[in-house]
Amino acid sequence: MYVPPTSPLARIWATWGYLQSIGSRELTARGDNYYLAFEGIRYAKPPIGYNSFRDPISFNYQGNTERKVHCMDIDSNGKVFGEEDCLCINVYTPLPYVNKSLPVLIWIDGRRFHYESVRDSVCQPARLVEKWMVVVTVNYRLGPLGFLSSEGKSNPGNYGLKDQQMAIEWVFKNIHKFGGDPKKITLGGEGGGAAHVLFHLNGALSGRISKGIALSGSRFAPWAISKIGWVKRNTRTIMVSFWSLNHLDRFRTMTSSEIVAKANKLNNHWLVYRAIWLEKILYPFIPVVDGAVIKDDPWKKVGTQGNFSLLLGIKDKEESFIDSFLKKEKKIGSLVSSIFWDDFNYELIVGKANNLISDDRYKVAEFYKSNNDLKSIIKDGWFIFPAMAEAKFHRGPFEAFMYQDLRGTPSQNETMKNLSDLIARFVYGNPSELKSYSEDKRLFKITAALHNPRLFKEMDEPMSKRMQTWKSLNMLPPHDSTSIASTGQEGNQSTSNASREMSQPHLPCFSFPEHL
């Protein structure tokens, strides 16, 4: 039987042949629903040898590893896990998938601190594909393998972000073969991945993807992007640790597991340089302003953001990670609070506050210091205040919620189900149906509260009072500001590197020996 090559049947056969060529396995989702998992599909050449610490190179091989791959990283116990050859994506599509035009959710995980795991994700494909969507999860280079940088042309960094961009381009080109519609893509992420999502949607992908989801992360968070010189210094330190290697080509001859392990040991420098104890928590290798993927610090271009629908979520106990830190580091746990307050760095904790004079800035510091309230200032400065900034500066439709992180408890399944339902409604463009705190204390809307922190009173009165203090000091720049200089004045487009570094809110300033 002759089948015209342009007929629907021919397209179905061609798609089926393509999917068969890359392999799959059939899994049960829920009840009588089934989905296909295409795991380990390569989207770029292996980033090893000559290709390491370089931009990813596209790869058109129609095949996969038929297994899930993790990129190399350090777990919470300090052990290296994962693989160097990891630039793969995983595609999960419900059956039947041929000749469908389903919405697509691309998910980017990423941790912000040590003692978190990129393998413990809110995104659960089995729950989401039963909502009739195609789910794509992205592997990208992590830690020094993905974000080592000299902050110059020879080694600009942000390789992990460039991996993500290449994976997203692969989805645009190929997702129709899996039943997905490239015009119905939502980009979502958790933790560091949430900040990455917002970098992309307010950057190179602006106008190409109409929906974004950011859970437990913001591009305005102090941990999301490096201050000038921070990653460069850490890169120099780790390269020198390899027998005084100082040339990137020679550095590429080292094994990835050695590099990752060395990067983890880099965090132990707090023993010598007590003012940087937060390095034990913060990653030393994070995104940098490179003029390409991230053209400028997000605080400097608050009036020129992308226009897309944003769903932002925060856990009610985001600050709980510090408990794990203190428990793990018993030898230093008793010193952390005193070190923190002795070496208090306002900009590290509370982020950008360009409109404040010096005396007003430290009102916030004293507000917390008087109570020795380390956990509250981390919660407010690293999560709530950045979320308030997203709410103020986001140009498109915006909705925010808070939820209880009940993983590991008997209530986990119900909360995860409700979270998956919320994500699915957003992906489909349906009303969120978010309830108030009084109606549902496990998952509730906070959109209005991010604009008016008095409304946090019902759910957390102490936090409401704290954030009212922040708001009363007029800490956010004007909504129409297009450039914020270190002096706090608007419209100054030509800020020198020196003043730019001064205005960075992210990481503390300290001196290292010249040989580092």
From TrEMBL:
<feature type="region of interest" description="Disordered">
    <location>
        <begin position="478"/>
        <end position="516"/>
    </location>
</feature>
<feature type="compositionally biased region" description="Polar residues">
    <location>
        <begin position="480"/>
        <end position="502"/>
    </location>
</feature>
<dbReference type="InterPro" id="IPR002018">
    <property type="entry name" value="CarbesteraseB"/>
</dbReference>
<dbReference type="Pfam" id="PF00135">
    <property type="entry name" value="COesterase"/>
</dbReference>
<keyword id="KW-0325">Glycoprotein</keyword>
<feature type="domain" description="Carboxylesterase type B">
    <location>
        <begin position="29"/>
        <end position="469"/>
    </location>
</feature>
<dbReference type="InterPro" id="IPR050309">
    <property type="entry name" value="Type-B_Carboxylest/Lipase"/>
</dbReference>
<dbReference type="InterPro" id="IPR029058">
    <property type="entry name" value="AB_hydrolase_fold"/>
</dbReference>
<protein>
    <recommendedName>
        <fullName>Carboxylesterase type B domain-containing protein</fullName>
    </recommendedName>
</protein>
